[in-house]
Inverse folding.
């Protein structure tokens, strides 16, 4: 039927009114009905071709057909988050999210009647437990809970939901909870849509609170992990200051420790029954499907869910902030200053104004903060961001101090940038450029199924009409500079909250102690009737498609030492161009510093600020990335401005003007960042300690200029390094709308290539240490948890091993249905995050490594390490789990399509590993014939009795040193030893 929109009558109608009606016709949202009477709405001009359905039970369905690969990205969104948590049981929404992975009376159940009888007893015991205050009585009740949980577990298949999703080839299976929402995510093969819908409809029909006490312990671990996070302290303090009465600030998503210690399964179930109803949910999908057929399937599967009245959340009215609120928090990481302003919710007029203000302040190229603070190096890492929520929103400014700079001074500098905005001290063109930047971001977002679905989730959760959601840029284009300045003058004054994140120790919530948990039985080789029936369903096979580099990529000689690797973008007007050099920090310790310096320079025609402004005017961005082995110079933006952009870049590369003041500030900033790195537990463990474990005291990580070398370097030295870089052979990677001929013409027009290119210098040798003895390295760090990495060096890389490695990792330790995850998290609740994989290197002629990680409470460390040790020695064998892993790999590869720049970088990766073909073809063909015995042989050969280096980051006084000594010679390392400075 035709759209239900205004149409002119056949009788006389004034031309002006007729024109106005036509305008209405263009802008309205038509309602369309498909052949089976499923009405849906669309928005004219919507590039995503969105269909929005509302089924009879109230379930909202967003669809965007997109056929670039035979996969579908999915999200099931519930309008219920931590703001809906009861004040006496915070963390409830997040905990329910965890429980939605535990199955139903069908998924994961071997005998629900018997299991249910035990679960009812557990529910009652938890009510007794939370009401009791006597420690002895609570301990006795918990022992009963533990006993009954093990009795109930014999009737379950732990992680069957994850196993099912893995079997059908799903990727990225996950979920998240925040203030407004809980969202469940999957990326599935298109030919498994029916099975996925069957699983998800069942999942939301009747979730069972099984394995509650082990999952609760996992949430405890997550809570303890957040207690080690300085960023969490900043966030919670900021929101507590901005929202004195709203649950945004009065409670947190993870919940209070006291509430987590006293859980109520009854309350969790009540929350589920209240909010997990179809009229409060949306199913959002984008990918390769037929909308008419798909909506029938969705209706058929989800019609079993019954609608209910949803409690109305009435947001408290926050009192005005009349003067600055200053809060101070302490933590072991570097100092930082964060300022937050409160605004009305996402559907208010505030949103458009603060969106533009945020971009004008900070766009990583030519914003007021970019030019005045970052480019002039007045602070470290200054930025601006928005947090958009339904009831209120926040605009957040942040920066870190330079050496000798106080947080008060940082605050003053940040607030001065707002004053510049309020005075209108920015060029008129910046408003237009900011809107173009937002358009480019939108184009990039909508290139992926994930980006499309995330937009749908945002619109649904926030209650934003889709036509309003996608028309924001049109509204922004109507805002004048005068209006923006007037708005800023009214809304940015002393009405802010400032968080001073100081370095130090602060008393926080007490760590949640380890309860006694008996490992549950893991019925790996059992399946529910539901699972057996679902996996027996036939689905049309999708044939894999592998890259043929010779035909999928265009290879052209720019000259004899420079090759163009070309791929055309036929979808939109965006391009990405890379200059790639096989010369990183291992061949030149100065190149990283030289490229950093370049970002603060201009040319003979432009000052540094003018250069950044010129780039931003034409919607272009330039960045440089240096690794140990490669340098990438990237230019991206709108193709129509590519000639101007590449000329700007080439002018900078060949004509950069020195700036001694900028260099001295850069040196001082690097020294401060080096000091800050020593305070970052992520930097300490995953970079400094990991490199020490592989190479010893001298490693690629420590291969940096010493402080004295840094201080003695000159502008001339660094500009010579840039010139020297461009005199080496390299590759040009291009993905964009232009033809190869056009790109070659532009490259020849802007570059003056030398007649001969310099050879690359020799790389500094950093041999990977052969482990003769087991070693344990400890770094003392003030934290609640202990984090451990175990490294074992194995054979040199060989492409022949890759198929075995891929399937082994899928089975053993790479995902939520793997052996390691089931044993250490599901059965024993020893960690929130744990994995163990066999890692291959990025370059040929380097070693493979066994890489195991676990983050756990210090008092669980003995059990956690014993669990990993046992799994490395004895591989649990499960035909069902192996079949799931095998099917998962085959499904994923058969439906994976590498597109856009993925094609170019896949070729790069292959060349670096010494192969000239798509390795996925070997994995697919070999995995199809592999058996569980092959997995066992791989484990025996590569895992058993391997020497290791164990890296332990934690508070030394809380670590069980006698336990650590069982795993090797123990040595405490200083930060100076692992950082090299």
């Amino acid at each position: 039927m035709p759209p239900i929109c205004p149409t002119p009558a056949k009788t006389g109608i004034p031309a002006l009114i007729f024109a106005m009606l036509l305008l209405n016709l263009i802008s309205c949202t038509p309602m369309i009905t498909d052949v089976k009477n499923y009405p849906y709405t669309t928005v004219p001009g919507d590039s995503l071709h969105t269909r929005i359905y509302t089924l009879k039970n109230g379930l909202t369905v967003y669809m965007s057909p997109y056929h670039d690969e035979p996969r579908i990205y999915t999200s099931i969104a519930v309008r219920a988050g931590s703001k809906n948590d009861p004040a006496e049981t915070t963390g409830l929404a997040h905990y329910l999210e965890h429980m939605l992975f535990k199955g139903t009376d069908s998924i994961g159940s071997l005998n629900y009647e018997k299991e249910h009888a035990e679960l009812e007893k557990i529910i009652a015991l938890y009510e007794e437990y939370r009401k009791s205050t006597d420690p002895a009585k609570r301990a006795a009740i918990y022992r009963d809970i533990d006993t009954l949980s093990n009795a109930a577990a014999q009737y379950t298949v732990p992680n069957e939901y994850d196993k099912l999703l893995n079997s059908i080839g799903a990727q990225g299976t996950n979920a998240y909870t925040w203030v407004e929402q809980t969202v469940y995510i999957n990326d599935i093969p298109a030919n498994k849509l029916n099975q996925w819908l069957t699983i998800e409809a069942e999942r939301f029909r009747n979730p069972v609170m099984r394995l509650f006490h082990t999952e609760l312990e996992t949430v405890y671990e997550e809570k303890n992990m957040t207690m080690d996070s300085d960023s969490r302290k900043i966030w919670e303090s900021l929101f507590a200051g901005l929202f004195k009465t709203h649950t945004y600030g009065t409670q947190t998503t993870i919940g209070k420790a006291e509430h987590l210690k006293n859980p109520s399964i009854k309350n969790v179930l009540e929350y589920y029954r209240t909010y997990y109803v179809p009229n409060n949910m949306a199913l959002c999908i984008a990918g390769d499907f037929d909308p008419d057929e798909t909506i029938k399937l969705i209706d058929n599967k989800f019609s079993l869910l019954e609608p209910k009245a949803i409690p109305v959340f009435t947001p408290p009215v926050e009192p005005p902030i009349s003067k600055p609120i200053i809060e101070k928090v302490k933590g072991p990481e570097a100092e930082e200053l964060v300022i937050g302003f409160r605004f009305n919710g996402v559907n208010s007029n505030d949103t458009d104004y603060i969106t533009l203000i945020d971009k004008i302040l900070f766009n990583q190229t030519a914003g007021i903060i970019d030019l005045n603070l970052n480019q002039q190096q007045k602070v470290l890492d200054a930025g601006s961001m928005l947090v958009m929520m339904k009831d209120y929103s926040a605009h957040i400014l942040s920066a870190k101090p330079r050496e000798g700079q106080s947080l008060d001074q940082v605050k003053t500098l940040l607030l001065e940038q707002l004053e510049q905005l309020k005075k209108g001290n920015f060029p008129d063109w910046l408003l237009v450029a900011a809107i173009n930047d937002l358009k480019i971001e939108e184009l990039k977002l909508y290139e992926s199924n994930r980006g499309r679905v995330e937009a749908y989730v945002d619109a649904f959760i926030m209650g934003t009409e889709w036509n309003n959601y996608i028309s924001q840029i049109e509204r922004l284009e109507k805002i004048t500079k005068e209006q923006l300045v007037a708005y800023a003058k009214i809304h940015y004054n002393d009405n802010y909250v400032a968080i001073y994140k100081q370095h130090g120790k602060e008393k926080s919530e007490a760590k949640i102690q380890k309860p006694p948990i008996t490992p549950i039985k893991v019925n790996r080789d059992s399946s529910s009737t539901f699972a057996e029936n679902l996996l027996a369903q036939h689905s049309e096979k999708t044939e894999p498609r592998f890259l043929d580099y010779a035909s999928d990529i265009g290879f052209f000689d720019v000259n004899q030492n420079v090759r163009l690797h070309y791929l055309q973008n036929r979808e939109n007007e965006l391009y990405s161009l890379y200059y790639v050099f096989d010369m990183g920090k291992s061949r030149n310790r100065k190149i990283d510093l030289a490229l950093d310096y370049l970002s603060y320079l201009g040319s003979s025609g432009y000052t540094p600020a003018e250069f950044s402004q010129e780039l931003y005017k034409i919607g272009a961005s330039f960045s440089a990335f240096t690794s140990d082995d490669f340098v990438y110079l990237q230019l991206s933006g709108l193709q129509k401005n590519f000639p101007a952009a590449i000329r700007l870049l080439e002018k900078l590369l060949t004509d950069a003007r020195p700036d001694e003041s900028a260099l001295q500030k850069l040196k001082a900033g690097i020294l401060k960042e080096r000091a800050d790195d020593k305070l970052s537990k992520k930097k300490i463990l995953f970079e400094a300690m990991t490199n020490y474990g592989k190479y010893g005291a001298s490693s690629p990580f420590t291969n940096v200029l010493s402080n004295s070398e840094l201080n003695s370097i000159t502008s001339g030295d660094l500009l010579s390094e840039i010139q020297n870089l461009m005199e080496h052979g390299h590759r040009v990677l291009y993905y964009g709308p232009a033809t190869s001929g056009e790109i070659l013409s532009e490259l020849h027009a802007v570059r003056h290539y030398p007649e001969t290119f310099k050879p690359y210098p020799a790389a500094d040798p950093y041999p990977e240490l052969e482990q003769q003895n087991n070693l344990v390295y400890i770094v003392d760090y003030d934290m609640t948890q202990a984090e451990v990495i175990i490294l074992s060096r194995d054979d040199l890389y060989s492409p022949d091993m890759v198929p075995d490695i891929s399937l082994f990792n899928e089975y053993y330790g790479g995902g939520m249905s793997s052996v390691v995850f089931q044993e250490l998290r599901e059965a024993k609740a020893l960690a929130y995050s744990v994995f163990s994989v066999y890692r291959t290197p990025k370059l040929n002629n380097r070693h493979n490594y066994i890489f195991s990680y676990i983050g756990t409470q210090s008092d669980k460390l003995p059990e956690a390490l014993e669990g990993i040790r046992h799994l490395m020695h004895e591989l649990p064998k499960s035909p069902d789990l192996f079949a799931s892993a095998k099917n998962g790999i085959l499904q994923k590869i058969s439906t994976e399509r590498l597109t856009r720049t993925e094609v170019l970088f896949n070729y790069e990766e292959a060349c670096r590993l010494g192969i000239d073909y798509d390795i996925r073809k070997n994995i697919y063909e070999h995995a199809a014939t592999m058996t569980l015995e092959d997995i066992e042989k791989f484990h025996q050969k590569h895992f058993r009795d391997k020497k290791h280096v164990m890296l332990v980051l934690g508070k030394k006084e809380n670590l069980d040193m006698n336990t650590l000594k069982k795993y090797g010679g123990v040595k405490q390392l200083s930060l100076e030893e692992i950082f090299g400075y």
